[in-house]
Design brief:
By secondary structure, the chain is of the alpha/beta class. Helices cover about 30% and strands about 25% of the residues. The strands form two sheets. Strands 1, 11, 12, 13, 14, 15, 16 and 17 form an eight-stranded mixed beta sheet that branches. It has an eight-stranded parallel barrel with strand order 2-3-4-5-6-8-9-10. Strand 9, helix 10 and strand 10 form a beta-alpha-beta unit. The two termini are about 25 Å apart. The chain binds pyridoxal-5'-phosphate. Pyridoxal-5'-phosphate (PLP) binds next to strand 10 and helix 11.
């Protein structure tokens, strides 16, 4: 949280001229992240799909599309946005437990690469709609591998008690059902165990589970051209400058070492947070500094409507004062202006002495920040500023 460090990260004087709050995206960080991913998968039959729900900002997704990455989508709106941003439909996968008819039809009409199917009723509806449209739907079955990713309960998706995927016990029956359906082309199996996963252990367990399922399927004479390992790689929220780029080497090495691939098989990954998390910061101003019962509050012009993660998951984000010249440090609760007690960004946060008007950056906000913003309290949606558009 040292103040001299911030001045290297942010073009503070340019940002100071802009009215707050806004998302500031460092496009160099985004491009470096995409380059590292490309290096790590080179020579392996790995294909990356970016999970648009992490950040659907048009500029961000257009850059990612140009980087030769596919798109992982969870709604009809995202299918449309991905098409507009230049992703190729064959490189789109579509997940979600509740795909409606119009969304399925849109996916079929665009001839997207893969529907990740989460239940038997969904399988039957996709088959019927594909039949009406005289199309064949490429699908993968999403399996719930019952692996605890040891992350926050709201972002764990691969354990038995949550709503996602098909139970392993039912897999064989459903695979046979899928194979028998005339408008379904079963391409592979899909897994996604959760988000903000920082230990590689759950991924090793995932590989072992997939190998077991795979062996069993093969013994039944069923072959899959594709396996989808989902996403979920975490980022370092406590040290965004020290770990600007997630450890993709460690992550992909797990799959290179532990996943048993058959000849010709392709592995898909659906990364969201790890691609865009560190390139974005929420930049805002201090409206007031007030004191109550010996507690000092910094009240910002950004709130939970701009960045809901702290209120929703008790998530930690580093907070920096970009303009204070003070060397003295004080302790503050950092809060937003929204009329909810949960509108808190940080408790007991140490900052250089902070005053009305100081510019504040909330770091690591590129993923699930802007995309989860709302207009609650009739506030405006935050807008976005890109590092390469600024005149520095
Ligand atoms: C959200 C989601 C992802 C991306 O998760 P990250 O943690 O952002 O990498 C990937 N696949 C599916 C099915 C998802 O729902």
């Amino acid at each position: 949280m040292s103040n001299d460090k911030t001045n290297h990260q942010f073009p503070t004087s340019s940002l100071q001229a802009i009215s707050t709050p806004f998302y500031y995206y460092d496009m160099d960080v985004l491009h470096e992240t995409l380059d590292v991913i490309k290096q790590q998968i080179e020579g392996f039959p790995f294909k990356i799909h970016y999970a648009l729900k992490a950040n659907g900002n048009y500029r961000i997704i257009s850059e990612i599309a140009q980087g030769g990455i596919g798109a992982d989508l969870v709604s009809g709106g995202e299918i449309q946005a991905a098409c507009n941003a230049g992703f190729k439909p064959q490189e789109m996968t579509y997940s979600g437990v509740g795909k409606t008819d119009w969304e399925i039809r849109l996916g079929l009409d665009k001839e997207i690469g893969c529907f990740n199917v989460e239940s038997v009723p969904e399988l039957e509806v996709i088959n019927a709609l594909a039949g009406e449209m005289e199309k064949t739907a490429h699908i993968a079955l999403r399996i719930n591998p019952n692996i605890d990713a040891h992350t926050h309960k709201y972002i764990t998706t691969g354990t038995a008690e949550n709503k996602f995927g098909i139970a392993i016990e039912d897999l064989e029956t459903i695979v046979n059902q899928a194979i028998a359906l005339p408008h379904i082309d079963l391409r592979g199996l899909h897994f996604h165990i959760g988000s903000q996963i920082t230990s590689m252990q759950p991924y090793v367990m995932l590989c072992e589970t997939v190998n077991r399922i795979h062996d069993r399927m093969e013994s039944l004479g069923i072959h899959f051209p594709m396996l989808n390992m989902g996403g979920g790689l975490g980022i370092d929220y406590s040290d965004p400058d020290g770990h600007q780029i997630p450890d993709f080497k460690q992550y992909f090495d797990v799959f290179k070492r532990h996943l048993k691939l058959r000849p010709g098989q392709v592995v898909h990954f659906e990364l969201g947070r790890s691609i865009v998390g560190q390139c974005g910061s929420l930049v805002c101003r201090t409206i007031f500094v007030k004191e109550n019962h010996n507690k000092k509050f910094v009240i910002l012009d950004a709130g939970m409507t701009d960045l809901i993660r702290p209120a929703l998951y008790q998530a930690h984000h580093e907070i920096q004062n970009l303009t204070s010249r003070d060397t003295a440090i004080d302790t503050y609760d950092i809060v937003g202006p929204v009329c909810e007690s949960s509108d808190v960004f940080a408790l007991n946060c140490c900052l250089p002495v902070t005053r009305r008007g100081d510019l504040i950056a909330i770091r690591s906000a590129g993923a699930y920040g802007e995309s989860m913003s709302s207009t609650y309290n009739m506030r405006s949606l935050p807008y976005s500023i890109f590092s390469d558009h600024l005149q520095v």
